[in-house]
Design goal:
11 helices; 333 residues; two-stranded antiparallel sheet; alpha/beta; seven-stranded parallel beta sheet; globular
């Protein structure tokens, strides 16, 4: 994947106060997200009070006619994030403290998009993470040849030793027979979780796979609604929940999902968007880890015009922003 699109939204009140939101689309859907924001969300917001929870529900009910997930949720997310930023600034508060800070730091694990790396390059990446002090790493699996995955896992586990955590991510590549064979073979290397072994919306398939394997499931980066998380939790298929704040429709539903998962004893490990995910991880009832992913933060992508105040490294995630969420984006095209 050679590029991502960001859709940056600014909500301005009649007093001139401003909040900034963002949506993220990997290659597909940016123009649709922008059109929904401009043509559908903006007219509905005009003249209304900028309360994020109230406006989110109103917009969700309206946009639901075009589908409760996908590009409608990603457009709604940009507006919702902007409204939360605006509200925090109005109170002179950081986003974390406005929502309710529960902790000052969260453990981070290192990860990267590395399935295409040869073994030497993968090992060099993992050694760099270990040298930096990371106590846990995640690598991609799902090679056409299972033996290739096993060779890579053996090499990575040898570098990590027995004390550091290893997580694996299949990115929805498998069917049930392939997944069960791979997951059971991976147990030798003691992974802490397997992420997205099957297509995300295949609840029945996950239930079948659950009966055939023992490894914890980390799912959620491609679940789009609170109800989808509810269904996965009720079915007992989600051991670590990984909502993406943009894909679920913003901060408002993200916090609802976090409250829901906590009632099932399931912690949150937010997906991607590290500068936003780290802030939300400070506030949720139960948290696992946040992702320190190679070359994928807003800072690494060089889309911020000033430092955000969010730090994610081997020592964990920490936040120290001014009022709002602290993200100031460079002007786009």
């Amino acid at each position: 994947m050679s590029f991502h699109d960001l859709v940056v939204v600014r909500v301005v009140t009649d007093t001139g106060a401003e909040g900034t939101g963002v949506s993220w689309t990997p290659r597909v859907g940016a123009s649709a997200v922008r059109a929904i924001v401009e043509d559908e969300c903006a007219p509905l917001l005009e003249g209304r009070t900028p309360h994020p929870k109230v406006r989110w529900q109103e917009l969700y009910d309206y946009l639901h006619e075009a589908g409760p997930g996908g590009v409608t949720a990603m457009a709604l997310a940009a507006v919702d994030i902007a409204l939360w930023d605006l509200r925090a600034k109005a109170f002179g508060s950081s986003l974390v403290d406005l929502i309710g800070r529960r902790r000052d730091s969260v453990t981070a694990y290192a990860s990267g998009v590395n399935l295409d790396y040869d073994l030497d390059k993968l090992c060099a990446q993992v050694r760099r993470w270990v040298d930096a002090g990371h106590s846990g790493v995640k690598i991609k699996v799902g090679s056409a040849d299972l033996d290739r995955d096993l060779e890579r896992l053996a090499a990575v586990r040898a570098i990590l030793g027995s004390k550091r955590k290893l997580m694996v991510d299949a990115n929805q590549r498998w069917d049930v027979p392939t997944a069960s064979r791979a997951i059971n073979a991976f147990e030798t290397f003691d992974p802490s979780w397997i992420e997205e072994p099957l297509p995300a919306d295949d609840i029945a398939g996950h239930a079948h796979l659950r009966a055939m394997t023992r490894m914890p499931f980390a799912i959620g980066e491609n679940l789009r609604t609170v109800r989808q998380f509810r269904d996965a939790l009720v079915a007992g298929l989600c051991d670590i929940a990984q909502p993406n704040v943009v894909r679920v429709g913003g901060i408002t539903p993200f916090l609802r999902i976090a409250d829901l998962t906590a009632t099932f004893g399931v912690p949150i490990a937010p997906h991607l968007l590290p500068e936003l995910s780290a802030q939300l991880a400070m506030c949720v009832p139960m948290v696992s880890m946040v992702e320190d992913i190679d070359r994928a933060s807003f800072a690494d992508l060089n889309v911020l015009s000033e430092p955000s105040g969010i730090t994610i490294d081997a020592e964990g995630a920490r936040t120290s922003t001014g009022p709002g969420h602290g993200l100031v984006f460079r002007p786009g095209r």
